Amino acid sequence: MGRHIHVIGIGAGDPDYVTAQAIEALNDTQVFFAMDKGEAKSDLVALRREICARFIREPGYRFVELADPKRSTGPDYREAVADWHAARARLWAAAIAAELGPDGVGAFLAWGDPSLYDSTLRILAAVAAEVEFTFDVIPGITAVQALTARHRIPLNGVGEPVLITTGRRLREHGLAGSAVVMLDGDCSFQVCPPGTRIWWGAYLGTADELLVAGTVGEVGTRIAALRAKARARHGWIMDTYLLRPAD
User: In the predicted model, what is the mean pLDDT of residues 202-220?
Assistant: First the structure.
């Protein structure tokens, strides 16, 4: 059979988001690989353990926690990300070779969906050049789906496209239409005109969930303050938001 890896999307925070397909993959796994990002983000590993404890019918699996390589904060963003991915790939290759038997089944649990602003699939492609294994991907509920569901809104305007982008690119290019913004540590919505509609959410699907909606002029300052306070309290934050230009 050979080594096999499941890449399992586990949703945006609520264990009820885990799909029946994901549950079957969880129960097929012997070794779960998890990135240890330090004390501030230790609850992200704890939530992964909680999901396993809830859905795995016959415990016997184990977790292998890997210290996440430090990411450069240099001016060249793409180079810094490439170096970080390469360091992760070396770490993962060594761990899979050491911790997973020749016919073993391992898994990486991806927050949200593995296809959306997640590095797991790119890194595994690099690992495959060093270690022989097969892998599959189980999709998960994304933060985008959770955000629109919690705000009870459609993602797109009638017949209109939606851009999924980052805070950095929003700052560089501005807002031309509806956009979902992720990976934004700088509250980049503040560059938008005051009449821009915003639906914001943080810690979606968890007990710490935060939701705010309005226009940038009405709620932008409140979101920035709420975000800073929540990040200081938890040591980390996952948030995303939907923007629409004023009519």
Answer: 96
